[in-house]
Amino acid sequence: MAVTAYHHFRYSIEQYYARITPYERHLLLSTLQAFTRAMDAYNLTYFLYGGSLLGSYRHHGIIPWDDDVDIMMNSSQKELIKKALGKKSPDYELDIPPSGQWKFYYTHMHNLLNRNHRWPYVDMFFFEENSTHIWDEVPEYGKTFIFRKNKVFPLRNRPFNHLMVHAPCNPAACMNGYTEEICVASSYSHKEETPLPVYKWVTVPCDKLKFRFPFIQRTQFDDGAWNESLVNNTKLIHTIITPKYC
């Protein structure tokens, strides 16, 4: 999950090309679907987080130049999560490192050097909570990624490519560190688990990319509901109506 907007003097559209093939994207989304079905079967809490929440909010799916999925979960449910995801073996497995994010991954792809997991995977983050707020349990993220519960719950489904996935009831209030109007190229390859060269860490206004990638055009109705139209250059792909934010 990228949390920093990197700036570089050299802008190139090449840094925003898709880093995965259509088939790899299909496998990534299939991994997400297997994950959500397992969570739903046990009635566990999960929702789009970080770059994936931004992707749903801005593109109705994976950010076109991204290569993983970020999901937030309740840290108090870890044992049930293990049980639920264990039923997806052998096609999918769960990697639990000593620290950092868990990975739910598809087992039939290539090995990653010095890693226990494979790609594609769902990056699993966990929140701690009190009576009013939730926050990322990872210390380096917890001070930035802290949200009021009444801006997160009750969860609502949002488009994520061809899927509908749980998301905060006020997505705009839960994207700390991300800006809808600024497009940040990837600084890390999850597919290879390696940082990308510094010259690829570019940041541009999203308006410069709307001729190439689909973006949401959003208008609000008098009752507070939202009209979200996915537009690729000037071509309308689809339109949905989402409820008033909480």
Descriptors for this entry?
single chain; 246 residues; alpha+beta; Beta Polymerase, domain 2; seven-stranded mixed sheet; three-stranded antiparallel sheet; globular
Structural features, described:
By secondary structure, the chain is α+β, with helices and mostly antiparallel strands. It has one domain: Beta Polymerase, domain 2 (2-Layer Sandwich). It is built from four helices and 16 strands. It has helices at 22-41, 50-59, 78-86, 139-142; strands at residues 46-48, 69-74, 92-95, 102-106, 121-129, 133-136, 146-148, 156-160, 163-167, 182-184, 188-189, 194-195, 203-205, 215-220, 226-232, 235-242. The strands form five sheets. Strands 1, 2, 3, 4, 5, 6 and 7 form a seven-stranded mixed sheet that branches. A hairpin with a 2-residue loop joins strand 8 and strand 9. The longest helix is centred in the first third of the chain and has 20 residues, at 22-41. The radius of gyration is 18 Å and the shape is globular. The model is unreliable at 1-10 (pLDDT under 50). It holds the Pfam family LicD. This is LicD/FKTN/FKRP nucleotidyltransferase domain-containing protein.
